[in-house]
Amino acid sequence: MAAMRAQELMTREVVAVGPDTPAQEIARLLLEHRISAVPVVDASGAPIGMVSEGDLAGRNEADREARRDWWLELLSEGEALHPDFLTSLSPPKRTARDIMSAPVVTIDEATALPEIARVLEEYRIKRVPVVRDGRIVGIVSRADLVRAISAEPPEPDTLHHRGLLSTAIAGIDRSFGFGRRRPAAGSPSPAQPSPAQPSPAPAEPGLTAADFQGLVVDFKRREAHERDEAQLGAAERRRQRVTELIDHHIVEDGWLRLVHRAREAAEHGGTEFMLLRFPSELCSDGGRAINAPLPNWPATLRGEAAEIYLRWERDLKPHGFHLAARVLDFPSGFPGDIGLFLAWGE
Fold first, then answer.
1. Kind plus residue range of the DSSP H or E element containing 109
2. Which terminus, N or C, of the chain has the lesser number of Cβ atoms within 10 Å?
3. Contact yes or no for 108/247 (Cβ under 8 A)
4. What is the pLDDT of residues 82-94, one digit of tens each?
5. How large is the C-alpha radius of gyration of the chain?
6. Which domains does the chain have, with CATH numbers?
């Protein structure tokens, strides 16, 4: 029996907020809809962060533990939002942009259930947005996985997947140029030189400069068409690359290989290593924050770039490694490809 996919598991009616939504309004939404987190989306509908009850309550561990019991009690009993809770949000003018966790890991609709479970465990998250063409279309939570496993019939070919998923869910709980033009028909092949021709005849009567000018116009028209075709082809290749990077997830072996290659660079005297090169379209703002640069540039990362950032933040940042992002080229004056660099130099 084939494993279920995100499109079969996800909640389609997603409660989401914009980056400028006040913290108080987010708290009301969580209580009203009896949920523990909401995705933050930009004007195009692309997820740029997540706000959970933990983000609302602050990062002081003692306060978070004390407020969590209160928060869950409010959810379970359906009480109105307590005014003291609203006053505890500090400062009161904070918005989703100020408190959200970013960047955000995403999956696509075809992601299989075992892979979803692995992503939740690997990144120690309880829910993951589902995207189509970069825009959010649903969300899959740990609870959705539990319901899916419970609903699966205990057939022999599903037992292996169920065991893997149960282990994963237990882990979540524990961690909480142009191309050459073709010769025109009748033109001699480059490999077959044309035979010697007789001496050219005198110019035909009536041949004018306007005829030559028309030939120039025709050439320029063909040249412009080829240039447009090349640009369209490059844009399509970039779009496909963005789709691949959104859908692809970094697994442990892949991450270890990147770190090993960075070590090899250090052994040869290097002070940094490019972990990923990706089109600026992978960023929610087209790479503007990275080009500026602005301090909130990590929140604009999506797909594989976001996952690499989170891996660095968890595994390497505590050991003194730095992560930098730079625009590598500027086609037509706009950010083109961007590089994520792991650095260890002084």
1. none
2. C
3. yes
4. 555 545 544 557 8
5. 28
6. 6-174 (3.10.580.10), 252-343 (no CATH)
